[in-house]
Amino acid sequence: MTDEPENARRPQGHAVLSLPGLAAISLYLLVLAGVLILGVVSGGHYPPLFLVFAAFFIAASAGLILLFRWAWAMALGAVFLLAGYNLWIFSSRHELPALVQGLLNMVFFLYLVRAEVRARLR
Q: What are the extents of the domains in the chain?
């Protein structure tokens, strides 16, 4: 046996495959970025400044797949802020879709703060 930790012997591809939640969160961030881009392009829903958020979501998604700690921090902040925003929308306007999206973001937040996820980041 060697003195290397188990993660050092394992290729990087297996780390992502063993954490399917990271792939789901990355896909979710890409979908959110697409919705923002379409909302800006259509001209009705979002101001052009929201393209900055779309760029951050895309960067966080790509970095999360590559297991970068900075991308984990961006994704963690994004899902936490989105959870708070959607739960606030639900409490003020009583819109059920905002509750569903807020709870989904809370599930993603709770997944990202797990010790197993943080241990795999570099």
A: 15-120
